[in-house]
Amino acid sequence: MLRFLTERAIGMAVTLFLVSIMVFVIMELPPGDYADRYAFRKYSGTGLTITEADVAAIRAELGLDKAAILRYFDWIGGIILRGDFGQAYAFETSVNSIIGEKAWLTLGLLLVTLIITYVVSIPIGIFAAVRRGSAVDYGLTVFSYLGLALPNFLLALVLLYFANSWFGAAVGGLFSAEYADAPWSLAKFWDLVKHMWLPAFVLAWSAMAYQIQTVRATMSDEIGKLSVTAARARGVPEGRLLLKYPARLAINPIASTIGFDVNRIFSELPIVAAVLGLTELGDLLLKSFLDLDMNVAGAILLLLTVVIVVMNFLSDLLLAWLDPRIRLGG
Amino acid sequence: MVCAMRPTHTGKAGDAMMLRVENLSVSFRTDEGMITPVEGVQFGLDAGRTLGIVGESGSGKSVSTKALMRLLPNSARLSANTRMTFVDKRGETIEIEKLRPGSRALRRLRGGEIGMIFQEPMASFSPVYTIGNQIMETIRLHRGLKGAKARELAVETLSKVGISNPSARIDQYPHELSGGMRQRCMIALALSAEPRLLIADEPTTALDVTIQAQVLDLMHDLQRELGMAMIFITHDLGVIAQIAQDVAVMYLGTIVEQGPVRDVLQTPAHPYTRDLIAAIPRLDRLEHRLHTVPGEIPSPSARPTGCSFRTRCSDAIDGLCATKTPPVTDLGGGRMVRCHRHYPERTAT
């Protein structure tokens, strides 16, 4: 178990290092740098003529003239040692103050989405497998293929329309107008809960459809296993039997693919955020790419990938906990 | 004692039997239509005796015993005249074919009255629970013991089947044990509920030969010690000779010959039994090539007309075996055979 943990932890560290390099390369890709923009913003409209030398001076002052490798270490060092993601170009402030709360909101949205995904897909998948070949099973299968085929921004629009016209609810965004800039309180939290279910459901949509099929397939497999027949042959009541034997194993593939689901959810986040007017990282990521604000974009990309990598690590741990064959190296 | 295969045979002796199976026919609805892998099987078993059922893969041995435990899938149908009666520990007669699925009586029968062990000891245990967890589950269900008491009994049963250091082994997972050890644990699991009858479905086939002998010895000893009856399914007549008192030879879903093991092995009446005996490899005949039963067992969906064995029989009678199903012939001494070669001699008069 200790060896398993160390191996996975080392794997995670290496992945994170490679990811940070890739993010840094992406940040370096667009032409121009912060010095150009700084000079432009400071002196445009003043009638002064800016020379290359002036820009170079600004660049030197900000430390941007150093070699890329040194700047990488400055950047990653700041993040690791001080939690400082650097300067945001577009907002004249630090990346941290822009991202700050939004990062937590995004993480919260992710967790709620994952919970909805599993709370819905595990029981339905098990049920479909137990009743496989029945009308209910076919119905669920059609439904889940629909889930895979239907783009979720479209679903978001449809739900938005119905939520609005049936409940008269203003469901866009994550907060009502009066709470958007208010300090945290119980009322604000409740407002968040009321707003979060819709985006979480939309984001969970395709992961849900996918996982229903996964659970159904593994469960169907497990139900036919000899160990299940053996348990039945020793008189275990059917309901308890299904939960204790096949269902217990049918959730293993779910545990091992949590990382994929996080990935899926994050790749859908920007477009769903745009449709639903969410004010979290997805929305900010889209904006910062449009503004070529690479420090913000880089910080968000790094945060999201770190979450994915860490979730993958956690899913490995969860699987080891669930399956003694992995835990005990069988 | 093996009871008669004939449907007409109903006697006082038969009524006292612990297990009676009459007219057992199992059909499955498949995409290619109905197939009947088991047809008209009859046998009986007294308390404390061992019946060996022998036959090739596909002969219906496992389907017959699964029917006894009502473990067949929903697509399986028993014929209307199938009767399976079992006298339980309390002396009450259970009509197995009439038990409702999911009923308490059926759950008590499974495990509590009839225990079952399977060919693959690894696959018989769930990999995610310890051996002890699964044994104690059986004890809770059938012996009404919980917690430390159940654990104590589980450890005791494990040591009874020859597991060393049972109080440590009980907390191990199936993948941590060897094949022979796993099968011992499976036996312990079945025995922990103290069944009257143990059905062993090729329990030694997946094991090494030396381990096979150990497990056979163990089962033999335990059976004598506990006074438990046993149905031992195998494709190996050599194993039957070691462990069973009576034998039923199955071919394509029917019993073609049955009787006391010694008699059947010494003077086999059915050509198929003769072929099976000739197919046992023997060390004193190494110069000969291995003998095999010619041809392959046909699929139950393409059962030959008349006698189902005639396509592989070296002794078939032209015109008769292909058209008429051979009836059961009583050879006396508890021996029955289903072959035209024996029937005409007895009815010629």
From TrEMBL, chain A:
InterPro entries in UniProt: BPD_transp_1_N, MetI-like, MetI-like_sf
Domain ABC transmembrane type-1 per the UniProt entry, residue ranges: 103-315
Gene3D superfamilies recorded: MetI-like (1.10.3720.10)
PANTHER family listed in its UniProt record: INNER MEMBRANE ABC TRANSPORTER (PTHR30465), OLIGOPEPTIDE ABC TRANSPORTER, PERMEASE PROTEIN (PTHR30465:SF43)
KW Cell wall biogenesis/degradation (keyword) present: no
Keywords: Cell membrane, Membrane, Transmembrane, Transmembrane helix, Transport
Transmembrane segments: 9-27, 103-130, 142-163, 296-322
Membrane topology: Multi-pass membrane protein
Protein's name according to its UniProt entry: Peptide ABC transporter permease
Keyword Amino-acid biosynthesis: no
Family classification: Belongs to the binding-protein-dependent transport system permease family.
Cellular compartment(s): Cell membrane
